[in-house]
């Protein structure tokens, strides 16, 4: 049985999938540990999640084409959506307090603190995130795509 934080995480994954954005993002940060366990990628691996935020790396700010409306879809599904007052980055927040943040690799001179993306969110621009995408894996959670028997 999933706890409330894990159920909120499942709702976030379903939101991203249903919005058609999953191929254009990569889950990074400590919630990947939970995903690895649920997908049974690392045997008896025990995740150590100590954070209430989920981080997604935006693979390409110009994809998908046409643009998706992830932030708008989140509002429709009952999530809170806010923009940071300083840099404008989008945060999607579940009623349990679980926050979703979007990051994107900073390239070139990289003067911008955040970049608008075709996902319909503004992502925080950080250097060296490209290293994460060099060895990524793809998996489906057992309870995703409408299977709510675990969620």
Question: Topology of this protein?
Answer:
Blueprint lengths: L3 H15 L6 E4 L2 H8 L14 E6 L11 H7 L3 E4 L6 E4 L5 E7 L8 E3 L5 E5 L25
Key features of this structure:
single chain; 151 residues; alpha/beta; seven-stranded mixed sheet; 3 helices; 7 strands
Tell me about this structure.
There is one protein chain. The protein is an alpha/beta fold and 151 residues long. The chain has three helices and seven strands; from the N terminus they run αβαβαβββββ. The chain has helices spanning 4-18, 31-38, 70-76, and strands spanning 25-28, 53-58, 80-83, 90-93, 99-105, 114-116, 122-126. Strands 1, 2, 3, 4, 5, 6 and 7 form a seven-stranded mixed sheet that branches. Strand 6 and strand 7 form a beta hairpin. The chain starts with a helix and ends in a 25-residue tail after the last strand. The model is unreliable at 145-151 (pLDDT under 50).
Task: Report the count of strand segments.
Answer: 7
Described by strand count, sense and barrel closure, the largest sheet is: 7 strands, mixed
> Helices and strands: which structural class?
alpha/beta
Termini gap: 7 Å
Helix content: 10-25%
Task: Bin the strand percentage.
Answer: 15-25%
- Based on CA inertia axes, which overall geometry fits? globular
Q: pLDDT average, as an integer?
A: 85
The low-confidence runs, each spanning 5 or more residues with pLDDT under 50, are 145-151
Count of DSSP H/I helices: 3
Listing every helix as H and every strand as E from the N terminus to the C terminus, the arrangement reads HEHEHEEEEE
Using the CA coordinates, give the radius of gyration: 15 Å
């Amino acid at each position: 049985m999933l706890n409330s934080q894990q159920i909120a995480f499942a709702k976030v994954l379903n939101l991203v999938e249903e919005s058609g954005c999953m191929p254009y993002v990569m889950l990074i940060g400590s919630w990947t540990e939970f995903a690895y366990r649920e997908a049974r990628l690392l045997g008896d691996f025990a995740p150590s999640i100590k954070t209430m935020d989920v981080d997604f790396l935006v693979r390409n700010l110009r994809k998908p084409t046409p643009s998706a409306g992830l932030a708008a879809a989140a509002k429709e599904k009952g999530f809170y959506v806010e923009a940071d007052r300083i840099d404008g980055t989008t945060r999607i927040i579940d009623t349990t307090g679980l926050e979703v943040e979007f990051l994107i690799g900073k390239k070139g001179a990289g003067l911008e603190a955040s970049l608008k993306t075709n996902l319909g969110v503004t992502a925080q621009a950080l250097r060296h995130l490209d290293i994460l995408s060099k060895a990524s894996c793809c998996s489906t959670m057992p309870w995703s795509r409408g299977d709510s028997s675990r969620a």
